[in-house]
Amino acid sequence: MKKHLTYLLFFCLTLSAQENNLHTQSTSYEWPTDPQVLNKLHSWQDLKFGVLLHWGIYSVPGIVESWSICDEEWVRRDTTMTYQQYKDWYWGLADQFNPTQFNPSQWAEVMQRAGMKYMIFTTKHHDGFCMFDSRFTDYTIAQHAFRDNPKRDVLQHVLSAFRDKQFMIGTYFSKPDWHSQDYWWDVYPIKRGRQVNYDIKRWPWRWEHFKQYTYNQIEEILSRYGSVDILWLDGGWVCPEANQDINMPRIASMARSHQPGILVVDRTIHGPYENYQTPEQTIPKTQLNYPWESCITLTDDWGWVPRPRWKSSMRVINTLIEIVAKGGNLVLGVGPTPEGLIQPEAITRLDSIGAWLKQNGKAIYNTTITPHYHEGNNLWFTSSKDGKTCYAIYTPNNGEPLPSTLSWTTNLPKGKVRLLSTKKPLPTSVKNGTVTVQLPSYLPSQPFALEFRNKE
């Protein structure tokens, strides 16, 4: 009973974190000038659908990643412990995190079946626990309960499994590190929330230690673990504007010396090191003509929790369609279990998404935006890169029957309109600037795509 009450408390804590700590997108964008970066960026834009894997010590009890040790007022915690007791308990989860069923090949296979084309793995979250065998700290999965396992250097095995499936590879790294004495120094109380808890101007040598530590760990990831395409940096409050300059020019230069053309995504920090924007748990209101990625979870949480609220596969598909029509990518958050597996409930949904993409993926992958991208409430448009082929994608509301006909007034077709999943032409008329397509009665109530030559 006590265990169940604890999980309930942590579930509430997780929901609180999701509601209060969302990263918004930057207000402007600066295109990179390096030709190798631009080429990789355009390749990434073609992929459209990826996975973001959060997995760490927070997975053991199934709570929000890192945030429960932050002293911000919106964070709710176990009130039977003092703050220091709670932090000690949380840090100690490293000695319980022993994922003996860890199977990255299963992860990669599931995500490939889902139709995903790129991945981002959390190498270190704000709590400072490393999912790789860092030489600069012993607070890593390779030095605690999992240390005797042949797969102890988790990052190596995860990246290898996804490379084997031809995924574009991304590594998430938290710029703040709440476990480091050079960020949260025990000499002072934590009275600044997520921020560094000492005066950098008074203790510049300590901040220099932290900058070098950050640099060293990023270099480990980019020099020891094979090819990496994306360096995805979280913790946008660590930035020059907040007097927490970690010297991004030096980090980016080092990153590209090891990984030429790598995309550097310094989240929410406008400038040359935010190669694409990352709105979290939301979709921009309008179409954007520069690179961006909505980060949206399969449940309400980034990591695994014991009783999640799942999104349906149709909801995820509808979300993907809207994002692609607006010019973005979707990276879907999936949290492996504490044992190291993707759970069956996630697999069922991901397989359903993949089955839909097998039939309709031509309207998603390698497409580009079209000026008339949305009509009515449920109709979205994408285009082939040469502009000759257009796709109309209908997204029914959950439980809503499909209409017998579909009409629109932009993106007029030249010739036949075909159901993309079957290539069969559908009865179509164009009168007074309105296209009307007769839909077959056998279509299930789920999203579908139409393909036609673009008259414009």
How does this structure look, described?
By secondary structure, the chain is of the alpha/beta class. Helices cover 27% and strands 18% of the residues. It has helices at residues 2-20, 35-47, 83-91, 104-113, 154-164, 204-224, 248-258, 313-325, 344-360; strands at residues 49-53, 118-124, 168-174, 230-234, 263-266, 293-297, 329-334, 374-375, 379-383, 389-394, 405-408, 413-419, 424-426, 428-431, 434-438, 448-454. The strands form 3 sheets. The protein has a 7-stranded parallel beta sheet with strand order 5-4-3-2-1-7-6. Strands 8-9-10-16-12-13 form a 6-stranded antiparallel beta sheet, with helices on one face. A 3-stranded antiparallel beta sheet has the order 11-15-14, with no helix packed on it. It starts with a helix and ends with a strand.
The separation of the N and C termini measures 65 Å
Radius of gyration: 23 Å
Largest sheet: 7 strands, parallel
Write down how many β-strands occur, each being a DSSP E stretch of 2 or more residues: 16
The sequence of SSEs as H and E is HHEHHEHEHEHEEHEHEEEEEEEEE
Question: Given the C-alpha coordinates, what overall shape results?
Answer: elongated
Put simply, the count of helices is: 9
Strand content: 15-25%
